[in-house]
Design a protein that fits this description.
two-stranded antiparallel ribbon; alpha/beta; 14% strand; 49% helix; Rossmann fold; 3 domains; Hect, E3 ligase catalytic domain fold; elongated
Amino acid sequence: MAKSKMWKITQTAKHNRVVIAKYIRVSTDKQRDEGYSIDIQKERLDGYARSMFPQSEYDAEYREYVDDGFSGGSLDRPKMNELIEDVKNGEIAHVVVVKLDRLSRSQKDTLYLIEDVFLPHDVAFISMGESFNTATAFGRAVVGILSVFDQLERENIYERTRSGMRKRVELGYWPGGGNVPFGYDYDSESGVLIPNRDAETVRRIYELYNSGYSQQAIANICGLKYERLVERILTRKTNAGVIVYNGMEYQGLHEPIISMDEYRKTMALMAERAARHLVSATDHLLTGLVCCGKCEAKMRYQKWGKAGGRFACCLVHDPNRDNERPWAEDIEAVVLEAVSTRLNNALSHRKYCFYSIFGGRSFFAGKGRDMRRRHGEAEGAQK
């Protein structure tokens, strides 16, 4: 194969040799089946690099940077980060890929790599599939054009994926992913949720709550870490056979753990308890409103002798946690200050808007004089 006149043969600053970086990426099994497998890319890049930069003519070194299972929509990839670091350290002369979209599917990221990483460090970028080299002005222009189409393809893939997922949900299938509800397992072959051994715990949680137990008491009985988990389980409509996707509800094909009647009963009881809690008599300002920043459990007022009170969560005695118990007065002071500031800002804004609408203070002064004059005329008429 004859060498292209476009090649820009350079040597690295740290080594008296030409270092060719072969970047390889594959994100899905489908791409492997379509001819973008790691082995195929390695074979093509290795043959290409050795033919264009034979060791008989150059002191060439061939490095491989392989990101297996990473999307091209982001540069947050281990080997990509390593490649960027090596380029900035002056260790690379050429970066070669099988196809432009192996480098990135984002126009912004592609241009960043070429204009802000490769070119400033005298590194030429070569794409076999598109047959260009950024060592030339024409090659750099082609990269900008092709990266636009790569980004368009990525966005089309995203839209098709979302559309396909929504269609699955409409048919009653679980949308997939790692967020499987407690009490279920996901059967990838059937695409349906299957109740597991924790389903009985879910049923018991509903029974206990509808029998009058608090969420914290239920968490203690069922061995859950904190009461927030109980609330999430109780409010999850999936337990009643419904799939909630992007704010819409669809009837699922999975077996419900509880009936819809029991779910509605629980939600009504939860609303009733919340309403009672809001009007309950208490001397504490923030009762039921403070949550632990580490375990997310509700924090309660705890008397601390004559010094006052502290906030404590249910896991404060857990030896594996270092949950703090802040002074209640300090937290209340911060909240009151924040509320006061927001109220003052709101009132100032409202006053400003009112003045702006009616022409400022002169309007009120004039209207005040008119009202006094009319009041005087009325009194004179009565006399």
